[in-house]
Fold:
Amino acid sequence: MRPMQDKEFFTKLFQAAVEAADPERTIAAHIPPKPKGRTIVIGAGKGSAQMASAFEKAWAAIHGDAPLEGLVVTRYGFGAPCKQIEIIEASHPVPDAAGLVASKRLLEIVSGLKEDDLVVALISGGGSALLPSPPLGMTLEDEIIVNKMLLASGAPIAAMNAVRKHLSTIKGGRLAAAAHPARVYSLIVSDIPGDNPAFVASGPTVTDETTREDALKIVERYSLDLPAAALAHLHSANADAPKPSDAVFAGHEYHVIASAGVSLEAVAKAARNLGVEAVILSDAIEGEAREVAHVHAAMAKQVLAKDQPFKKPVVILSGGETTVTVRGKGKGGRNSEFLLSLAIDIDGADGITAFAADTDGIDGSEDNAGAFADSTSIARLFAKGHDASASLNKNDAWTAFDAIGDLYAPGPTGTNVNDLRAILIR
Structure:
């Protein structure tokens, strides 16, 4: 069995990552001046409710009883207490009718504003699914089908969001455009490799230069059998998203207030404070989860055997967002799939333990953020009657780690700066 202290070590690293992205810490430094007109707070994402709560407190500390109003939408179970900003909960990662209602209300809230009004947008990862708003000719069911196809395709998040923003009346800067002539001030918690704010939650308030032609190329590249209405819309000029140069965005402002890079630096510092040297491979790793695991495992075994390219003891850290091409009908997210693949590769390599988790507290659609693995995981699975390779082929990593008691389920964290992977070599 893996020593309990390794689980405790990884848990402390996870907590350091989350604390570095805590809205209570990050928002206070980004409170805008009070406008002459109204202040409307809108938002979407798995961390948006906690962002709204933190914004209310920081706003009051600076501007006293200056009024606020608004609405944010978050995932079911991810709400937070707010006094002036309404919180709506909806479905993630697959949209539902509650999200459709929230999108409609957000568009209504920002309509009819004046030049002296200020719209504060609190955006975090997960907002794409939470803001379904199909264009004319498409239905909510069409958008749900598109979303499921994208999630199962293995496409990177930037590609998925390029498609989503061209099949929406709220994404791709359209929510900000609807607020014209009010100024929009966006505070963004990035879960996107590279931290392009236009791709966080498919950019409801931040535009980019991707086109519907780009979206169609992605559909072709990943062989997406989209609903006829969605495909017809992408072939129509109505799918064109507004460009950053559009005059309606003049004076708008955005700030990325938390990211994987900042959190990884905090994790490395925490590891060193615990007496273990830390190295950061990258905060923007993408690719198929099981393939990324092979590279991480090979590096860990090289360190274990030869003290190359790093000397042990050391913890190897990485962030970003891997993908899973769904081929089976099992349970599990990208972090548990990464770990199961890694566990197979490090089987019997005594001295290597590993951890991977999503910083929002949920990996995929189950209740865990991720899991733990070590050189004995595969043997322990076999003793429980599980074939690790078969489980991986069925995308059933959750069931595997549940069987040996190695799931990690901290619950919703209130933030979302993507995945944390940590491999400890003693």
